[in-house]
Amino acid sequence: MTPDKLLLKLLPVIEASRSAEFYNCGVTDEGCAALSSALRSNSSQLRELNLSVNNAKDAGVKLISDALKDPHCKLEKLRLRDCGLTDEGCSALSSALRSNSSQLRELDLSVNEVGDSGVKLITDALKDPRCKLEILRLYKCGVTAEGFAALSSALRSNSSQLRELDLSVNTIEDAGVKLLSEALKDPHCKLEKLRLRYCGVTDEGCAALSSALRSNSSQLRELHLFGNKVGDAGVKLLSALKDDPRYKLKTLML
């Protein structure tokens, strides 16, 4: 029996569960159609769905996105890591996030080649007051300075609810860090956790982050910079912030 056919048989069980884990199970858009039906059921209790490392692709993601718009859907966490997603799927997700009915708080799009165009679509949703997203993971998504500029703009929006952002293994470098640092200084920015592992950040980027974290507006409590090109000067700047009770930074990974 194929994974998709098995999903169809398990629908009553899935609807009654709060969490469904289908990591690397060979699920395609046929299985996503079954899950979409389950999510829209009046009896659905699903709060968390993991479809990572499957063949969902854009067609399957569109079906899941349609379910997110349904008032019966209670899903709060959705993981789509390494699913062959492109900006076409991001467009469907962006539309769903801007729906009055969407309850989604956490979205993982890591290891998908969504690029800057896909990130811009997601950031459009973050600016919408109907969007409830608090955690966004974009690990290894092909994001460059253009995408970071869009994220910086979204973080400064009065409507953004984002508390946690993972941009690790993207071509951020110091230019991108400076854009994000400007957002951290904005009183509208609610970001508390930021992961920038393996992003080519140097002491110059650390100086921009240090300046942002010294701002009265910064809410950042956790910063991950492991795997970057940070020298002694950068380490000294950020470590001083962590050890100073005047600032909010409590966790620093270098």
UniProtKB/TrEMBL annotation:
<keyword id="KW-0677">Repeat</keyword>
<dbReference type="InterPro" id="IPR001611">
    <property type="entry name" value="Leu-rich_rpt"/>
</dbReference>
<dbReference type="InterPro" id="IPR051261">
    <property type="entry name" value="NLR"/>
</dbReference>
<keyword id="KW-0433">Leucine-rich repeat</keyword>
<dbReference type="InterPro" id="IPR032675">
    <property type="entry name" value="LRR_dom_sf"/>
</dbReference>
<dbReference type="Pfam" id="PF13516">
    <property type="entry name" value="LRR_6"/>
</dbReference>
<protein>
    <submittedName>
        <fullName>NLR family CARD domain containing 6</fullName>
    </submittedName>
</protein>
